[in-house]
User: What shape does this take?
Amino acid sequence: MNDIFANKQSTCGVRYAILTTYDGSAFSGWQRQKNAISVQQTLEDCWQKQTGETIRLTGGSRTDAGVSARGHVSSFCSKMPIPMNNIPLFWNAKLPDSIAVRKAIRVEDDFNPRYDALGKEYQYRILNRRVRPVLFRHLVAHVPGELDLSAMRQALPHFAGTHSFLALMDQGSPTKRPVRTIQHLELVDEDRLITLIVRGDGFLYHMVRILAGTLVLIGQYKMSPERVPALLEAGDRTLAGPTMPPQGLTLERIFFAKTHFGGDCWPYEDKRRKGMSSEESDSYTLRP
Assistant: This one.
């Protein structure tokens, strides 16, 4: 055991990071709330009931109600003598079927998955068929009318790169930093199950869902791909598409400066965190 972990264990225990997957339809969002069930509360309460120890999870993303996650990262401090490799099994034994801890690792005392996150990948799935989904209805949005995928793909380069994305932000966000960088955008079609893959260094409130809604408008011939640059320049939310339903959105992974759970090392150059205060960082990592 190195000095960092030894010092941590002597004060308030060992700090762990956990990789979690959950079905967002079962929760009001990730963050603990007063009058609704959240992912954070479910995890914390389950741990407390089994061990008697009260923990406080720090999440890398505060996903909204109905939004699912395949690779959510959070951290907590514990004094319980549970072997690290057994923590997922210990937790999952009492968690509901809608959530599971995939892996646990030991991390440095100052690790904060929210402020240390350098980027995230989200996927938005649209079932573009006449018949509505049943078995996978909590993981896709249904658009019955045929979409022009070619036109939608023509719009992607206009959204990629560094822009002010005020036009893709719903009201209710306190951020004063509308500029974000989208490093990767892709549309994948598998028998009319259309998946929008978005990877960026930060997202505004509902940004990915509005981006998906704008692409749907383009696919319906209600907006041309060539209008996107003017849309972003105007910064007018009313010019963009609708906010798509939350069930189509999944948090796939959170990226950091180094690998923690495999495949989560941010592959792009990033200087945002240097000299950034906690308040600025907080406004920079709002929910999509």
Remarks:
- Residues 1-10, 273-287 have pLDDT under 50 and may be disordered.
- The longest helix spans residues 39-51.
- Helices lie at 3-11, 39-51, 87-92, 149-159, 207-219, 228-234, 278-284.
- The chain has two domains: 3-114, 119-251.
